[in-house]
């Protein structure tokens, strides 16, 4: 068999494989979140509070003064059980950030899935995949740090 016939045979076989891969099912829904100093922008209804922070200790002081009130006013993410991708962006925070989704209470932390990671330098975006079960969660950045925003998963 000459090279031309081998290449044509390879293309004929590759086409159904590519078609199967394209039809492999729906992709996980994407939840996009943007971190700015001391907060997640979307969680606070898109309101940039204009916080300035050169280090995590700056956010600790800011959140001690008003973090609880901001969480009370924040948007709770409501989802159904399933696989999700949280796409988190560090928008102009001058130090490394991370992301952490976990059960809201200690009992929930033991029984519900969790995902976390760091390495989000200024301008970087990173994906965090998780399969959520029904329950109450919180998400935050312990490195920024942000308040614990609420996430509820219901059937």
How does this structure look, described?
With 155 residues, the protein is an alpha+beta fold. It has a single domain, classed as Cupredoxins -  blue copper proteins (Immunoglobulin-like), CATH 2.60.40. It has 3 helices and 9 strands. The chain has a 5-stranded mixed beta sheet with strand order 3-9-8-5-6. A hairpin with an 8-residue loop joins strand 8 and strand 9. The longest helix has 20 residues. The N terminus is likely disordered.
Specify the CATH class. Answer: Mainly Beta
Point out poorly predicted stretches.
1-24
- The figure for the number of domains is 1
What order do the strands of the largest sheet run in, or round the barrel if closed?
Answer: 3-9-8-5-6
CATH topology: Immunoglobulin-like
Shape: globular
List the helices and strands and how they pair.
Layout lengths: L2 H20 L7 E7 L2 E2 L15 H18 L3 E3 L2 E9 L6 E7 L2 H6 L3 E6 L4 E8 L2 E6 L8 E5 L2
Parallel strand pairs: 1-4, 3-9
Antiparallel strand pairs: 1-2, 4-7, 5-6, 5-8, 8-9
Describe, in short, the structure shown:
The chain is of the alpha+beta class.
Key features of this structure:
155 residues; alpha+beta; Immunoglobulin-like; five-stranded mixed β-sheet; 9 strands; globular
């Amino acid at each position: 068999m000459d090279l031309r016939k081998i290449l044509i045979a390879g293309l004929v076989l590759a086409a159904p494989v590519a078609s199967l891969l394209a039809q492999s099912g729906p992709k996980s829904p994407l939840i996009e979140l943007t971190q700015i100093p001391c907060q997640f922008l979307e969680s606070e209804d898109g309101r940039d509070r204009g916080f300035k922070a050169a280090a995590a200790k700056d956010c600790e002081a800011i959140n001690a003064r008003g973090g609880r009130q901001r969480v009370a006013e924040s948007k709770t993410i409501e989802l159904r059980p399933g696989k999700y991708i949280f796409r988190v962006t560090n928008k102009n925070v001058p130090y490394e950030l991370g992301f952490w989704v976990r059960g809201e209470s200690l009992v929930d932390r033991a029984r519900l899935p969790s995902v976390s990671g760091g390495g989000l330098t200024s301008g970087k975006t990173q994906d965090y995949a998780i399969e959520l079960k029904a329950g109450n969660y919180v998400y935050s950045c312990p490195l920024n740090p942000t308040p614990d925003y609420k996430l509820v998963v219901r059937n």
